[in-house]
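Hi support team,

I'm opening this ticket because the web form for multi-chain structure prediction keeps timing out on my end. I have pasted the exact lines I submitted so you can reproduce it. The total is 228 residues across two entries, so I didn't expect it to be a heavy job. Is there a limit I'm missing, or should I split the entries? Thanks in advance, R.K.
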Amino acid sequence: EAGVTQFPSHSVIEKGQTVTLRCDPISGHDNLYWYRRVMGKEIKFLLHFVKESKQDESGMPNNRFLAERTGGTYSTLKVQPAELEDSGVYFCASSQLSTGGVETQYFGPGTRLLVL
Amino acid sequence: RKEVEQDPGPFNVPEGATVAFNCTYSNSASQSFFWYRQDCRKEPKLLMSVYSSGNEDGRFTAQLNRASQYISLLIRDSKLSDSATYLCVVNEWNTGFQKLVFGTGTRLLVSP
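Hello R.K., no limit was hit. The queue was backed up. Here is the completed structure from your submission:
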């Protein structure tokens, strides 16, 4: 079974440009999460989709970040315009819906974003 | 104060050694707990869940102390392949859905 995939693996852009990251979750996983690791810091939650609906976007840094999951399959995370502090590794994770039990989140390989 | 605190290390140990990592968390309402392993420039992968009764998986033993809000991971008979960063992760329930909160990780280096 294919795992979580992310594209691109690396992106180098200039400040002010736009970048769009893509995540394809494991087939059948309704939960999709975005996380980010800024250099020297811990991995932090950005937002959570259940199917196509945003369940929790409390971790989104500001309105320069826009996440979508049209159709409830893959998701995109767009940063526009990018700032230097947006540099980091963006991870996507997916899991099956749980009826209250513990779910296991499976992570993608991440997209390494460098804003110059 | 960070929500999940870990000693960043690195812990340098010889092969065959026993090593223990500790972690504390601040949110007493946290529901579930995990240790993830992350290799250099790779994604985090679930190592094991942590239960109050303690659980063991081969050379790995995890313990949870809810009263002290403390989680531990013990690795026995360390192998070179155990070299990695170990992330303490707490699952916070939010409106019925889960959100992972990560520590910064503890780096382990196992040498021959």
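A quick check on our side: Chain A is about 0% helix and 50% strand. Let us know if the file doesn't open in your viewer.
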